[in-house]
Each structure stands twice: as C-alpha cells, then as structure tokens.
Amino acid sequence: ECIYTKHLCLDGRQIHLEIYDPCSQQGKLSLADELHWADGFIIVYDISDRASFAFAKALLYRIRESHIGVCKKMVESSIFLVGNKQDLCHMREVGWDEGQKLAIDNKCQFCELSAAEHYQEVVAMFTKVLRNITATSKVKERRRPSGSKSMAKLINNVFGKRRKSV
C-alpha cells in the first residue's frame, strides 16, 4: 500500500498526518477501508490527461457514495480537487472550468497548481486543507481506556487516597 506518514506542527498544534495514495491502483475503486478512516481528501488529476480527470471524477463519486450511508452531513471543506501540471497549459486536455464545475457539483474546494515549478503552492494547498479539516472537524469521541486501565482507575478511586487540589 502507499501510505505516507508525517508529523508536523501547524499553528502550534501537533498533527499526525497519514496520506493514502491510490494512484498505483487506478483500476481498483474499492477504497472502503480507507474512506472510513480519512478526515479529508485531496483528489489530484493531471490537467494534460483526460483519463486522470475521469479517475478523479470516479473517486469523488465513490467518496460521496460511501459517506451518504455513513454520515448524513459531510463537511464540504474536507474534499479538495486539485488540477496539477499547470505548467503544461500548452498540453491541456481538461479546462479550468471543467475542474471548477466538478468541484462545485461535488461541493468541494478547487485549485490548479504546478507541483513541478512551485512547491510552495503544494505546501500552501496542504496547509489550507489541514486548517480546514482541523477547524471544521468535531471533537472525536475519545477512545475509552482498555479494561485493565479502567479497572486500575476504579480500584484507585475506591481504595486510593484522594489528592487535594493546590
């Protein structure tokens, strides 16, 4: 699998980022497991390759389809559609307006950039994505401690000495 991990600090907050890249599996759209753990999606297509745009459209459909059953209200800002290779405008097969329309139709954000010429655009796009996800994501339910930890806490509460607040 193509999962990349990165730890970073954004706005004073530690973030553990896991990125799943399904590009090597373009024929396979059964992303059921990946779709359920993701907090956000960045779908990238090549503006000089209509087939990659069709794949991006299929991924958007698959994401929307999977989230309809899981949650009634999906945060619109958690999906970004990105047209890459803006530096190859002379070979463009997918118009900016087509990308914009697909984004609007799927209630996601849209941008075009050139990862080859301006890595700063990629950094800015990822930063925007992460800020949107952290700003709009609800506080997730905290996982309950395992049985042994819960039992130890219970025993400590019953038999242990209470500390006074200072």
UniProtKB/TrEMBL annotation:
Query: What does it catalyze?
Result: GTP + H2O = GDP + phosphate + H(+)
Q: Which family does it belong to?
A: Belongs to the small GTPase superfamily. Ras family.
Q: Listed GO molecular functions?
A: G protein activity; GTP binding
Q: Which domain of life is it from?
A: Eukaryota
Record keyword Hydrolase present: yes
Task: Identify the keywords attached in UniProt to this record, alphabetized.
Answer: GTP-binding, Hydrolase, Nucleotide-binding
Q: Which organism is it from?
A: Cardinalis cardinalis (Northern cardinal)
Q: What is its EC number?
A: 3.6.5.2
Which parts of the chain are coiled coil? Answer: none
PROSITE patterns documented for this protein: RAB, RAS
Q: Which SMART domains has this protein been placed in?
A: RAB, RAS
Q: Can you name this protein?
A: small monomeric GTPase
Q: Which InterPro entries does the UniProt record give?
A: P-loop_NTPase, Ras-related_GTPase, Small_GTPase
| Database matches in Pfam families | Ras
